[in-house]
Automatic annotation (TrEMBL):
GO terms for biological process: nucleoside metabolic process. InterPro entries: NLR-like, Nucleoside_phosphorylase_d, Nucleoside_phosphorylase_sf. Keywords: Signal. The keyword Oxidoreductase does not apply. Gene3D superfamilies: Nucleoside phosphorylase domain. This is Nucleoside phosphorylase domain-containing protein. Residues 1-23 form the signal peptide. Pfam families: PNP_UDP_1 (PF01048). GO terms for molecular function: catalytic activity. Residues 11-129 form the Nucleoside phosphorylase domain.
Length: 359
């Protein structure tokens, strides 16, 4: 039923990139107010919204002005005043992925989707003269999802629910593919993984004096030109490819795990693997931690790169499509208890307590 006012919206979807929001908008079953004119905003709220329905839920889509935790936290805080009935926020879009989950040896491929059950802030620590020291045990600082979220995530790990979820994702992904060629699967030939120690840089001395790829004082340094170049133009050595996507991995797999969140983009295979081993991390994003402490939250993101220096945007649109399709599929299973007579987000304050035991 169409809400009479903003308090009738219970689900928020937050996107940082235009391509992410485009994919989500195309999967709305009905759009009530595309530009936010009809429902308006609370005074002082500078966010931009599109509202409508996804399945049985009244949903508000919120556009972020820029990437990052601070931006995400600001957006979530303002939204609580305009939409006090929101009981769940989905941070939807794209992320970097760990190629292999360290404790299960489960492979993650480009286009797969990661759903969060915990968040690690990996830029939280102290800067010493000899380098940055990350503080360990960060999940306790961010808390864990509420019982309703944890229960559903456990259900989605059963064989039957996971199979149903993936079938729904395929259906919604097909809707996007038919709407625009940019949502198409890029092809398995574009999904390759380089050795973590093999950097995306000039491998022969460049003629440009600005190239720092061969700076003996900073052996890991990569010049700006190399950062903006493709693997083909840099002639990255295919002999250093340690995995190619197999033919039987063309579908979308769902991974429920820990998201590492930071204001910096992870572009280092070595740092990626260390953090994955230390914290059992499945993926990397820049917004999750900002929303996590403000609203009951789940991060649902498609993997667009392997969080190493070889990352590019070939898979970004497809990963945005798999993330959006997974969010819509997830909402089919979200059946919150009746909110009648229950406190709003503003009554409750933050979504979670400041500290909890580890998930």
């Amino acid at each position: 039923m169409r809400p009479k006012d903003r308090s009738g919206f219970s689900i928020a979807i937050i996107c940082a990139l235009t391509v992410e929001a485009d994919a989500v908008t195309l999967l709305f079953d009905e759009v009530y107010d595309r530009y936010g004119d009809e429902y308006g905003r609370h005074p002082g709220d500078t966010n931009s919204y599109t509202v409508g329905t996804i399945g049985k839920h009244n949903v508000v889509l919120c556009y972020m002005p820029e990437m990052g935790k601070a931006s995400a936290a600001g957006v979530a805080t303002k939204m609580k005043f305009s939409y006090p009935g929101v009981s769940l926020a989905l941070v939807v879009g794209v992320c970097g992925g760990v190629p292999l989950l360290p404790f299960s040896n489960t492979p993650i491929f480009l286009g797969d989707v990661i759903i969060s059950h915990a968040v690690v802030r990996y830029d939280y620590g102290r800067q010493y003269p000899d380098g940055f020291k990350r503080k360990e045990g960060i999940p306790n600082n961010l808390g864990r999802p509420n019982q309703e979220i944890r229960t559903l995530l456990n259900r989605l790990q059963t064989s039957m629910a996971r199979s149903d979820l993936q079938n729904d994702i395929v259906q919604y992904l097909e809707v996007l593919r038919r709407s625009d060629p940019r949502w198409q699967y890029p092809g398995k030939a574009c999904d390759v993984l380089f050795d973590a120690s093999y950097h995306h840089k000039h491998h022969q001395r460049a003629t440009s004096l600005k190239c720092s790829c061969f700076n003996s004082e900073s052996p890991g340094q990569i010049c700006q030109e190399a950062q903006e170049s493709s693997c083909d133009s840099l002639e990255c050595d295919e002999n250093r490819i340690i995995r190619r996507r197999p033919s039987d991995a063309a579908g979308v797999s769902i991974h429920i795990g820990t998201i590492a969140s930071s204001d910096t983009v992870m572009k280092s295979g070595e740092h990626r693997d260390k953090l994955a081993k230390d914290e059992n991390v499945a993926g990397f994003d820049m917004e999750g931690a900002g929303v996590w402490d403000e609203l009951p939250c789940i991060i649902i993101k498609g993997v667009c790169d392997y969080a190493d220096s070889h990352k590019d945007k070939k898979w970004q649109a497809y990963a945005a499509a798999t993330g959006a399709s997974s969010a819509k599929a997830f909402l089919r299973y979200w059946n919150p208890a009746s909110s009648e007579g229950q406190p709003t987000i503003l009554d409750m304050g933050f979504g979670y307590p400041a500290k909890h035991s580890e998930v």
